[in-house]
User: Which sequence fits this backbone?
């Protein structure tokens, strides 16, 4: 078998066999098939697509390219949540201890910020001392003790995805639904989850700008996950505007503490509770999402999720005392306010522009090797739908240095859209797609 023949088969629109996919991915991981041939194959997939059967085989082959988390001996159920990425999307830090407080184990393997979307690992590492490079033994131990653990993808887990994702990022083939599906699911299955809840975002700040494209991705994730024996639910959620009132690494940790204390922003709490409710259903602790949400709200009122979060911070090397001391004050010295330029209503704050400004500020990164700042970010004093007067503060902005602050401010000012009339209320959770 030759790689060029497999490439040409996909270029012509043929459905690849299991043997062809195993040959191509196995050769890439082993180093016997070069980047340029995999890039050609990825471009053929981008234009020709893959059948559901092909996507399932690709996911399985990528999964088997490395090790799978061994959770044997730990009592389940094991349920995880994955977001396709957005601006101000910090729900994972609240969801993990929340569902853990209800007896669900969340084996969470997360990623870093890239481009305008935030990364869970960067937020956690803004906590002084917090470690995300857990060994397999530590991951098992913390998961067993606290009900959740937070780690990054190691070189041993799904190496095919690590290689292929980097290649897709520089060859214009990221937005391929089959390749996205295989990338996400191979990692999620490798971490040992039995049930999966996907937050598939659409809108300006999302990976999928169009609702129809997001719906196709959600369906692909649900169908492929179900074919692999997993219970899967996907929610399509609005990411046209930033989620919550904070964008930034330590800032978002602070906002998560607010949520765990039951006083988070309404939009952030809505998405968090709806996702958590589905995890509770998949974990067999509630018969439907309404009961699941009620259980989550009751759990937050007890304070147990906050206790579990702080226990995890300490267990993973974080300084709990220092975290609480820094709350409200850990900010860059380079700051400025963005004020309303006219009176009326804020029709919208464009999430993509805020996310792009965040990269300039030091919140995100353009390249995987770029450093991020824990003290940069944006706090919103008003959001879409709020009434403002000219001169009112809309945002406070912190940059990693003065130059980054000045570079981001014009983009942040342009992200604000005004209206004389109150905009219609947003429906944050647009649709649910389920395999159960």
Assistant:
């Amino acid at each position: 078998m030759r790689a060029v023949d497999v490439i040409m088969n996909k270029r012509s629109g043929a459905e690849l066999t299991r043997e062809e996919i195993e040959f191509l991915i196995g050769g890439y991981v082993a180093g016997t098939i070069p980047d340029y041939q995999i890039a050609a194959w990825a471009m053929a997939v981008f234009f020709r697509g893959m059948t559901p059967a092909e996507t399932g085989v690709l996911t399985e082959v990528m999964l088997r390219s490395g090790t799978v988390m061994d959770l044997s001996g730990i009592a389940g159920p094991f349920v995880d949540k994955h977001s396709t990425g957005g601006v101000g999307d910090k729900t994972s830090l609240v969801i993990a201890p929340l569902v853990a407080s209800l007896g669900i184990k969340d084996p969470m393997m997360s990623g870093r910020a890239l481009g305008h979307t935030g990364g869970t690992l960067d937020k956690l590492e803004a906590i002084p001392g917090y470690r995300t490079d857990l060994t397999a033994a530590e991951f098992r131990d913390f998961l067993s003790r606290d009900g959740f653990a937070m780690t990054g993808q190691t070189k041993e887990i799904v190496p095919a995805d690590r290689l292929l994702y980097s290649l897709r990022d520089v060859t214009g083939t990221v937005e391929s639904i089959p390749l996205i599906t295989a990338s996400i699911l191979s990692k999620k299955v490798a971490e040992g989850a039995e049930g999966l809840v996907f937050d598939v975002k659409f809108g300006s700040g999302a990976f999928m700008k169009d609702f129809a494209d997001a719906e196709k991705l959600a369906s692909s994730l649900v169908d492929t996950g179900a074919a692999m024996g997993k219970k899967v639910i996907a929610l399509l959620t609005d990411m046209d505007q930033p989620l919550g009132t904070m964008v930034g690494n330590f800032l978002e940790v602070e906002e998560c503490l607010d949520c765990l204390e039951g006083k988070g922003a309404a939009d952030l709490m809505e998405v968090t509770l709806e996702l958590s409710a589905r995890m509770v259903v998949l974990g067999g602790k509630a018969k439907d999402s309404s009961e699941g949400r009620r259980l989550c709200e009751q759990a937050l009122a007890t304070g147990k999720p906050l206790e579990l979060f702080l226990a995890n911070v300490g267990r993973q090397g974080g300084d709990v005392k220092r975290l609480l001391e820094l709350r409200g004050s850990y900010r860059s010295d380079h700051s400025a306010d963005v004020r309303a330029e006219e009176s009326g209503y804020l029709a919208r704050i464009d999430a993509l522009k805020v996310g792009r400004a965040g990269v300039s500020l030091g919140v995100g990164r353009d390249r995987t090797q770029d450093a991020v700042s824990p003290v940069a970010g944006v706090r919103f004093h008003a959001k879409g739908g709020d009434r403002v007067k000219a001169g009112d503060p809309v945002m406070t902005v912190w940059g990693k240095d003065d130059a980054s602050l000045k570079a981001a401010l014009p983009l942040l000012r342009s992200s604000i859209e005004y209206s004389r009339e109150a905009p219609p209320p947003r429906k944050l959770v647009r649709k649910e797609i389920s395999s159960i």
